[in-house]
Write a structure and sequence with these properties.
2 domains; 273 residues; Aminoglycoside 3'-phosphotransferase, Chain: A, domain 2; alpha+beta; Phosphorylase Kinase, domain 1; 9 strands
Length: 273
């Protein structure tokens, strides 16, 4: 395990120095693996006493739209971004996550509204049905797709009620609470979607009950000047989120990313459908 860790750390150093050639001969201090990443390997490191984060992408590929989202005020300050492959270095933000320091349901709803107000529309589409279908295809090919999930998707009558720029991976570990407001990480999945998907996804990951979730939804609706969703659309969006979360976990297992927390996610969200 130590040899594997050292190999990953050395690869991260190579990525860092390729992204910032001026650091070729600089010592990269305090390399620390951030264990929360599932699809990428993330590290904190220091150069000349300043802290940074690097995202080392496992599945390399072009990300032409992500640069637009990374330029938003709530995103971390970008030091270097390899748009062709996906590797990224940002300045380190020293602040607790929303998971570590949750706010009230009302404050959270207003925070989501402010975030949505920053995100431009028309950059790219995040089609929940298409994303789930792609994950299901990968999982099925590897024998990792539960038939109950496929049935749940077939029965899902949900469609977005409005479309705007969204984050689409808005969990409490991706939100940092700073004195100046939220700073939001991981913009890989950003795109036009129903914004209620972000709201209910964050509430679910915060493990709020239905009363707290509705309080958050009402605060968000009021902040954006829109009526709250119908109960039917609320529950349809929630089910769509559950299926997406299961589908992602099943696809990760199909790729060999067999971590206990990923298996737990697949089991948990399958039971919620």
């Amino acid at each position: 395990m130590d040899e594997e860790h050292d190999a990953h750390a050395e690869h991260a150093r190579q990525v860092i120095r390729s992204l910032v050639p001026a650091w070729q001969k600089q010592p990269l201090d305090a390399m620390h693996w951030l264990t929360g990443g599932y699809t990428n390997r993330n590290w904190r490191f220091a150069v000349d006493g300043r802290n940074y984060a690097v995202r080392v992408v496992r599945n390399l590929g072009p990300r032409p739209a992500e640069a637009t989202y990374l330029a938003l005020p709530s995103a971390p300050a970008v030091v270097a971004f390899d748009e062709a492959r996906g590797h990224l270095i940002t300045e380190w933000i020293d602040a607790p996550t929303l998971a570590q320091a949750p706010t009230s349901a009302e404050e959270t709803g207003m925070g989501i509204a402010r975030l949505h107000g920053e995100i431009p529309a028309g950059i790219q589409r995040y089609d929940v049905h298409a994303v789930i279908a792609a994950y299901f295809h990968a999982a099925k090919d590897a024998g990792c797709l539960d038939a109950r999930a496929a049935t749940a998707l077939q029965r899902l009558a949900w469609q977005p009620s409005r479309i705007k720029g969204c984050h689409n991976d808005l969990n409490p570990w991706n939100v940092l609470s700073t004195p100046g407001g939220w700073r939001t990480l991981d913009w890989e999945h950003a795109g036009d979607n129903d914004p209620l998907f972000d709201v209910l996804g964050l509430c679910t990951c915060l493990e709020w009950d239905q009363d707290a979730t509705w309080t958050c939804v009402h605060a968000w609706s009021e902040a954006i000047g829109a009526p709250p969703p119908s109960s039917r659309h609320f529950h349809g969006t929630l089910t769509a989120f559950y299926i997406r979360e299961y589908a992602w976990a099943a696809a990760q297992l199909a790729q060999g990313n067999d971590r206990p927390e990923i298996r737990e996610q697949a089991t948990d969200y399958l039971a919620r459908m």
